[in-house]
Amino acid sequence: SMTDLSPFDDNIVNKIHYLFSEVNAVKCSMVGDTLTTFNNRKYPVNMPLSCYQVLAQDCTIELKFMVLLKKDHASEQNHINVKISDIDVDLYTEDHGVMVKVNEMEISKDNLPYTDPSGSIMIKQKGEGVSLYAKSHGLQEVYFDSNSWKIKVVDWMKGQTCGLCGKADGEHRQEYRTPSGRLTKSSVSFAHS
Prior knowledge:
Layout: H1 10-24, E1 26-31, E2 34-36, E3 42-44, E4 53-58, E5 65-71, E6 78-84, E7 87-94, E8 97-102, E9 105-107, E10 114-115, E11 122-126, E12 129-134, E13 139-145, E14 148-153, E15 161-162, H2 187-192
Protein name: Vitellogenin
GO molecular function, one term: lipid transporter activity
InterPro entries: Vitellogenin/Apolipophorin, VWF_type-D
């Protein structure tokens, strides 16, 4: 009967709410060598070895967060660095496990979940990898494992990010804007800028 499908069924409302918040969290990811930008553009990226590239950062004057990636010269493994106010977090792999360092101090798996003293960052194990959350600074989640990473920014950061992941504004044309503001035609010249 129709009464079973009351529109106020909490469970349905929660599911819909969850779907919307998942859709609204703009995400950028890389699996293997394929980068998917915030605006859902896919392109192959060959990261130059041992130099950091900006994946995503808050491009307002507040510069609330910055997520950098470099490929380790020896192992060719990804190494992600997240900067939030005066906190520096390094995520990298060693012996097939994900390592976490906060301001150069190693945080062992037994000490996860970890929350920094100011309470603005939380790091916890998730599946095969590790996730960092810093919602108050605009980062919904930075996930990292041995062969992929994913960055989600909160709703209110839409259109205010820059870096390899793009602007997160639903536009495709602006994707390859260099730090100097020039538009480049290709992902390669962009990556090297």
